[in-house]
Amino acid sequence: LPGLHVFTIAFALEVSVGKANTVMALNNSDVLLPCTFTTCIGFQDLVFMWYFNSTEMIYHGKIKNKASEPTLVDRNPRVEFVGSTTGKDNNISIVLKNVEFSDAGKYTCHVKNPKEKDAKHNATIFLTVVQKMVETDNTLTLIIVGVVGGLIGLLILFMLIKRVVLFIIKKTQDGKKDYLVSSSGNDNTENGLAGSKAEQKAPPKA
């Protein structure tokens, strides 16, 4: 039935290794390989396995139900189970100890849930092994940020100077206009210029 098919998909088994599917580890260090699974209808006699490069099984475990922790079936001596399935998350993560350069590669977490008609799902994480962690050199970034910041600062300074200069020019022009207006309306009597009041007086009578 179509409705039953949709119902089955809604409760499908899901396996996840987190948002990042790559892990970097130092040579001779221990590294966590995360894995969790979800299923809305629960699980019974669930089986999970970890594989290296799809062929070499490095951990095999079983979980009876939600109330019990996983039991070991088989594992590589350098692999340790660090998860838990009785808490909020169904965590089946492992730790690979004393990693070597030959351990770099693909690690796949497989889960099979008989309660979902043996539904299977898996997720893969890639491990990179390095001699030493490379620190990110932020010098170039800091230089770029400094230059951009300096240019912005100069632009702001230029705009301020431009405003001040324009203000001074405007004030100077306004001052000249006031001077011309006041000069054109001056009484020129004392200067003896043509059109002055001294010349406009009528000559004295004899």
From TrEMBL:
The chain crosses the membrane at residues 140-161. The keyword Transferase does not apply. The keyword S-adenosyl-L-methionine does not apply. SMART domains: IG. Keywords: Disulfide bond, Glycoprotein, Immunoglobulin domain, Ion channel, Ion transport, Membrane, Signal, Transmembrane, Transmembrane helix, Transport. Residues 178-206 are annotated as: Disordered. It is found in: Membrane. Residues 181-191 have a biased composition (Polar residues). GO terms for biological process: cardiac muscle cell action potential involved in contraction; monoatomic ion transmembrane transport; regulation of ventricular cardiac muscle cell membrane repolarization. It is a single-pass type I membrane protein. One of its GO terms (molecular function) is transmembrane transporter binding. GO terms for cellular component: voltage-gated sodium channel complex. Residues 2-126 form the Ig-like domain. Pfam families: V-set. This is Sodium channel subunit beta-4. It comes from Buceros rhinoceros silvestris. The lineage of its organism: Eukaryota, Metazoa, Chordata, Craniata, Vertebrata.
